[in-house]
Amino acid sequence: MIIDTTAVQDMNSFSRLQSLKEVYGIIWMLVPILSLVLGITLGVLVIVWLERQISAGIQQRIGPEYAGPMGILQALADGTKLIFKENLLPSRGDTRLFSIGPSIAVISILLSYSVIPFSSHLVLSDLNIGVFLWIAVSSIAPIGLLMSGYGSNNKYSFLGGLRAAAQSISYEIPLTLCVLSISLLSNSSSTVDIVEAQSKYGLWGWNLWRQPIGFLVFLISSLAECERLPFDLPEAEEELVAGYQTEYSGIKFGLFYVASYLNLLVSSLFVTVLYLGGWNISIPYIFVPGLFEITKVGRVFGTTIGIFITLAKTYLFLFISITTRWTLPRLRMDQLLNLGWKFLLPISLGNLLLTTSSQLLSL
């Protein structure tokens, strides 16, 4: 039997080429994901710095100023400190639940970013059920908090976990009803389609003007979902020591705060997408080509402009959320549940019925 060495070399080179193509494809697939994670991490660091500076301004005191210029590296210094701190475990607690709880809280919120369109050409996954995927995935986070409280084998922690679960369930229902109203109004559950539906008339095409009641309910519910003041009952120090994170230390303790700020950022992004027109500029489309000639510029520049507009609207809402935290007092648990079940739920149901009726009459 005669073996053609040239053919064997061609087959080997072809197999190497195919392997390189597969490796290149995997790397190219991971680049958007890693870029999104890096951007989210920088966004969280900026939010922490903004909250400290804004709270210092409201309370007429000096904020962080030593770690970097204007204290901009203070959040990075705190995270580095938490990484190197000792990781303590409760002696009689459930170690697996205790360790998995913070990870579930962070990962479930990170998955929500996959359906957020930062620009017309910059979305990780444009799904037909994008907004409902966000609601479904973010509903897993309270399970992680409940696991953390139960795994600590501490009654204070367990009570804090139960409070977090009860609060999340109470405010997820009005939140979902508001999102359903927006989906009916836009005839789609895709985040990209919802933004495109608001782009026709610029500022006046925003869902904010067509759904003002839903916007207020969504605003309150999103603050409660993020456990921000005046809805931070799961972490009320006066009643529960420190809630579900009483037994935590080191980086696991820090993961709860990372999850809180991630949730705040994703909620602000969804406010921008659902109610504030997303990446679209606020000037009506008929005037945009004459003023800015955005339709004639390259795709990269257009994407950059879209990202800038999205982040500007997002951080405007973040400023409102941070100011609210340092302005209003904390509610009692009965007041919080009454607000969710007796007020926001009927109002969001009525808003959904009105939206459905108007959509049926317009057919």
Automatic annotation (TrEMBL):
<dbReference type="GO" id="GO:0003954">
    <property type="term" value="F:NADH dehydrogenase activity"/>
</dbReference>
<feature type="transmembrane region" description="Helical">
    <location>
        <begin position="26"/>
        <end position="50"/>
    </location>
</feature>
<feature type="transmembrane region" description="Helical">
    <location>
        <begin position="255"/>
        <end position="277"/>
    </location>
</feature>
<feature type="transmembrane region" description="Helical">
    <location>
        <begin position="97"/>
        <end position="116"/>
    </location>
</feature>
<dbReference type="GO" id="GO:0009060">
    <property type="term" value="P:aerobic respiration"/>
</dbReference>
<keyword id="KW-1278">Translocase</keyword>
<feature type="transmembrane region" description="Helical">
    <location>
        <begin position="128"/>
        <end position="147"/>
    </location>
</feature>
<keyword id="KW-1133">Transmembrane helix</keyword>
<dbReference type="GO" id="GO:0009535">
    <property type="term" value="C:chloroplast thylakoid membrane"/>
</dbReference>
<dbReference type="InterPro" id="IPR018086">
    <property type="entry name" value="NADH_UbQ_OxRdtase_su1_CS"/>
</dbReference>
<keyword id="KW-0934">Plastid</keyword>
<comment type="subunit">
    <text>NDH is composed of at least 16 different subunits, 5 of which are encoded in the nucleus.</text>
</comment>
<keyword id="KW-0520">NAD</keyword>
<dbReference type="InterPro" id="IPR001694">
    <property type="entry name" value="NADH_UbQ_OxRdtase_su1/FPO"/>
</dbReference>
<keyword id="KW-0812">Transmembrane</keyword>
<dbReference type="GO" id="GO:0019684">
    <property type="term" value="P:photosynthesis, light reaction"/>
</dbReference>
<protein>
    <recommendedName>
        <fullName>NAD(P)H-quinone oxidoreductase subunit 1, chloroplastic</fullName>
        <ecNumber>7.1.1.-</ecNumber>
    </recommendedName>
</protein>
<comment type="similarity">
    <text>Belongs to the complex I subunit 1 family.</text>
</comment>
<keyword id="KW-0874">Quinone</keyword>
<keyword id="KW-0618">Plastoquinone</keyword>
<dbReference type="GO" id="GO:0005886">
    <property type="term" value="C:plasma membrane"/>
</dbReference>
<dbReference type="Pfam" id="PF00146">
    <property type="entry name" value="NADHdh"/>
</dbReference>
<keyword id="KW-0793">Thylakoid</keyword>
<keyword id="KW-0150">Chloroplast</keyword>
<keyword id="KW-0521">NADP</keyword>
<feature type="transmembrane region" description="Helical">
    <location>
        <begin position="297"/>
        <end position="322"/>
    </location>
</feature>
<dbReference type="GO" id="GO:0048038">
    <property type="term" value="F:quinone binding"/>
</dbReference>
<comment type="function">
    <text>NDH shuttles electrons from NAD(P)H:plastoquinone, via FMN and iron-sulfur (Fe-S) centers, to quinones in the photosynthetic chain and possibly in a chloroplast respiratory chain. The immediate electron acceptor for the enzyme in this species is believed to be plastoquinone. Couples the redox reaction to proton translocation, and thus conserves the redox energy in a proton gradient.</text>
</comment>
<dbReference type="GO" id="GO:0016655">
    <property type="term" value="F:oxidoreductase activity, acting on NAD(P)H, quinone or similar compound as acceptor"/>
</dbReference>
<keyword id="KW-0472">Membrane</keyword>
<feature type="transmembrane region" description="Helical">
    <location>
        <begin position="343"/>
        <end position="361"/>
    </location>
</feature>
